[in-house]
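re: that chain from earlier
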Amino acid sequence: MTDSKQKAWKISPVMPGQIRIYIRRTLIYILMTLLALFFLFPIVFMLVSSLKDNDGQLMADMGSIYAFIPYGHISLQNYINVFHLVPFSLYMFNSVFIVVCIVSSGLIVNSLIAYALARMQFAGRDILLVCIVGLIVVPFEAIAIPLLLVVNQLPWIDGSTTWLDSYHVQILPFIADTFSIYLFYQFFIGISKDFEEAALVDGAGRVRMYWQVFVPLARRPVVSVAILQCITHIGDFLWPVLVTRGDTYRPLMVGLQVFFGEAPIRWGPIMAFASMVTIPMLVVFLLFQRWFLRSVASSGIKG
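^ sequence. v structure.
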């Protein structure tokens, strides 16, 4: 038997297994592509519709492939009309300001609470941790009305007797977040005690140890919590619609609902409004998705 025949004899039993692997991978890629296209269809429809300055053309294309294909006269007039019809810039500023305050304050507060629970021993620590984990499953809708009654009676530093229709009523109740605390806790508890012991030997206190040792190590959960909080609160609707009374403090989602409720309904500007809300958040997530996925994987949270 020649060398070529011997090689063929050795390789041939492996080929059926390799073919099955290739087929399986191909089917997975096809399925993932179909799922991606399925979830992209609404976004593509929204973007294409926002570029059609004729609502009649938009409605006529609803039952055809042209709903997903830009053709004919492409215009940015719908985006211009949004700024003329509603104070979009004010809505955008309100949303960005509220989200930045919640995320920046929440990263400090939630990480400090998680650090205390993970690395310090004190009375009631385990009970507090159980309560935090239990509160994760409580939906906000269940506490929205009681929380509204509470904040309606709280005074503020300017002498007002209610928190309603303000920035702080949309910020302060959401700084402490149970899921963010748990995410930081899962990361902090997995850090080796050698770092902590070395810092103690160097004379570092708890605050210095938190800031100079644990925070630099927690880049992944910081990015993950920031993205989750940003996505959550940029889309807040229930709470802002309960506590705001006018355009001055309205965020984007409430502004979109107000715009949608005006007569006559103009679908082109509505699609443009929705596009200007959705696309920036999608871009932010795509830029930081690697950090986000690594953080969730390393935190020990499983589905």
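The radius of gyration is 26 Å.
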